[in-house]
Amino acid sequence: MSWIKEGELNLIERISANILKTGPMPKHVAFIMDGNRRFARKKNLERQEGHMQGFNKLAETLRWCKHLNIPEVTVYAFSIENFKRTKEEVDGLMELAKQKFERLLEEREALEKHGVCVRVLGDLNMLPLDLQQIIAKAVVTTRNHNKCFLNVCFAYTSRYEITNAVREMAWGVEQGLIKASDVSEALLSECLYSNNSPNPDLLIRTSGEVRLSDFLLWQTSHSCLVFQSVLWPEYSFWNLCEAIIQYQLNHKSIQKARELHREEQALEQLEADRACIAELTQHQGNGKPADAQKRQEALQRYIASREARVQDFLQALKHKRNSFFSDLCSETALT
Amino acid sequence: MVLLYGLLWRFLLFLVHVKRAAVAWMRVRLRSWRVRLWERTIAALFLPVSVSEFPNYQKKTTLNQNANRLSGNRTGTNPSRPLADGKALEKLPVHVGLMVAEEELSYTDIASLVVWCMAIGVSYVSVYDNNGVFQKNSSHLQEEILRQQQKLVGADESKHSVELLNTDQDQHFVVSCRPMLKVLSPEDGKHSIVQAARKLCHSVENKERSSKDISVSMLDDLLRESKNIPDPELVVKFGPVNSTLGFLPWHIRLTEFISLPSHRNVSYEDLLGVLQRYSSCQQRLGQ
């Protein structure tokens, strides 16, 4: 089964989609595709078959999202915790992933036509090398597409992602690119695997579980959460519509909370900058109190230099990440 | 055409609102109806029927009987009842978060919820609202809790006293070390993760450790502030907004979210229902 499903919506679906689209639409939807194994058990299928059907449902959901003008989708494909499953199942999932990413490479023309950019979020080092290389190839091939975005979280947990972001910032400090005092909420967000995406507006979890299971904890703090009881392979267009209506109902209050949070964040940053200035002037030791004008100038200068530092660091980080993928690709070329 | 679609959308949203209101109204109706039903069943229990054949049934009735008594008249009830309810549950969370996503806050209702949680046997309760109002007025909340304690579970203070943990100023209201209350605001969420990150980066700056040493457990230890409070297993969310609104992003990895429509005039039965739902959930932890 392929990644790209062609085909239009039927008449009723199209009308419903048009109705929904007159309201505020989510720009980024995240899915926890739960219930593949329960589905297999229910239908007396092999476990692997359940995972297969789950993947097919993903392709179908991407098609719906495209028709609903949702440009970005993030899915939780494999958690670091999933390595704890039986070897047989983990191997099966790795094999499935390998097949699917190979398939993705075969379909590069269709991906280019639809402008689909595929990103993989997670620590690839935990995966078998051949899978790493295929994933890297897929990521590099679709890197410049910019109409729709699919983020696949693989070997991912949110705590690991946050820790990794802290590690990257510490790396920046070691390299002398930034100072420890430059660490802020905005910078941490930029160091996450998801730094190229806006935060999800809507998070959908299927199969009736009501927890996040270490998925996008940082990014979904102001997202609409919808828990649906349907198993993932049975997910339908109408389930998606229902979730979007939930989002539309919550839109105003969540937007307000986001605004509030943004204001607080800006205030925090200003305070941090002020504290740094205060410390600097203390170190310089000229005891005479500067007048307001001078202080304001010093603050502006400090902010400008901090921003320049942070930009340099983010450039370096981006380069480091890009070359990780390119290196993996060139390794395959050699072998 | 677009106009028509827009109108239809508005109509659809209106329908969903109506449905929501109807469900909320039904809940209230159902509750009062159930009270009457239980009265009848209790009356039936006095008939010489061999109840011992239906042990589960009996347990359930007594459970709800207690609930009704507690919710029906909020004054002097037997303080051991909630504890019995707690023991009847298969699984009880150690740490419960109460998250209010509503504009108007009611200190009395939140205080009753805290007292009920603790009386049932929950060791840690966190209270959160995304404007940080509860945290700003934590002493008011504390007073209200003491008042509700007297009212709801009687004067058995030694058993159910509350300790308010306050990280900013070291003002502890220590009466006993048993149940603990923490009042949270968005400050305790991402902000505290950033603080921890800055701390780690400072230590890297001073060459105390290398960036490669930083691990999930290291960050976790820092965020726990060495108090060893477990992550909340359950967050009860009050209000119509389906979002965590910044509630402790690091700590809610495995937290179950269960919603109630409002915290105003919430009853003991509502809370017990949520706890029963929680105790029937099972987690596979990635397996």
UniProtKB/TrEMBL annotation, chain A:
Q: Which compartment or compartments is the protein found in?
A: Endoplasmic reticulum membrane
Name the EC number(s).
2.5.1.-
Give this protein's Gene Ontology molecular function annotations: ditrans,polycis-polyprenyl diphosphate synthase [(2E,6E)-farnesyl diphosphate specific] activity; metal ion binding
* Membrane topology type: Peripheral membrane protein
Q: Provide the cofactor list for this protein.
A: Mg(2+)
What domain of life does the native source organism fall in? Eukaryota
Q: Which GO terms describe its biological process?
A: polyprenol biosynthetic process
GO CC, sorted alphabetically, is: dehydrodolichyl diphosphate synthase complex; endoplasmic reticulum membrane
In what pathway does it function? Lipid metabolism; Protein modification; protein glycosylation
Q: Which residues form a coiled coil?
A: 80-114, 253-280
Q: Which Pfam families match?
A: Prenyltransf (PF01255)
UniProt keyword annotations, A-Z: Coiled coil, Endoplasmic reticulum, Lipid metabolism, Magnesium, Membrane, Metal-binding, Transferase
- Record's HAMAP family? ISPT (MF_01139)
Q: Which NCBIfam families match?
A: uppS (TIGR00055)
Q: Give the protein's biological function.
A: With NUS1, forms the dehydrodolichyl diphosphate synthase (DDS) complex, an essential component of the dolichol monophosphate (Dol-P) biosynthetic machinery. Both subunits contribute to enzymatic activity, i.e. condensation of multiple copies of isopentenyl pyrophosphate (IPP) to farnesyl pyrophosphate (FPP) to produce dehydrodolichyl diphosphate (Dedol-PP), a precursor of dolichol phosphate which is utilized as a sugar carrier in protein glycosylation in the endoplasmic reticulum (ER). Synthesizes long-chain polyprenols, mostly of C95 and C100 chain length.
For this entry, the protein name equals: Alkyl transferase
Please name the source species. Nothobranchius furzeri (Turquoise killifish)
UniProtKB/TrEMBL annotation, chain B:
Q: Subcellular location, in the record's words?
A: Endoplasmic reticulum membrane
Q: Which domain of life is it from?
A: Eukaryota
In the Enzyme Commission scheme, what number(s) does this protein have?
2.5.1.87
What's the name of the protein? ditrans,polycis-polyprenyl diphosphate synthase [(2E,6E)-farnesyldiphosphate specific]
Q: Which organism is it from?
A: Nothobranchius furzeri (Turquoise killifish)
Q: Map out region (Disordered) in residue numbers.
A: 65-84
Cofactor(s) it depends on = Mg(2+)
Q: Which gene encodes it?
A: NUS1
Quick one: a GO biological-process term for this protein?
sprouting angiogenesis
Polar residues: which segments have biased composition? 65-80
Per its record, the protein catalyses: n isopentenyl diphosphate + (2E,6E)-farnesyl diphosphate = a di-trans,poly-cis-polyprenyl diphosphate + n diphosphate
Q: Which Gene3D superfamilies match?
A: Decaprenyl diphosphate synthase-like
Keyword terms, alphabetized: Endoplasmic reticulum, Magnesium, Membrane, Transferase, Transmembrane, Transmembrane helix
Write out the pathway annotation from the protein's UniProt entry: Protein modification; protein glycosylation
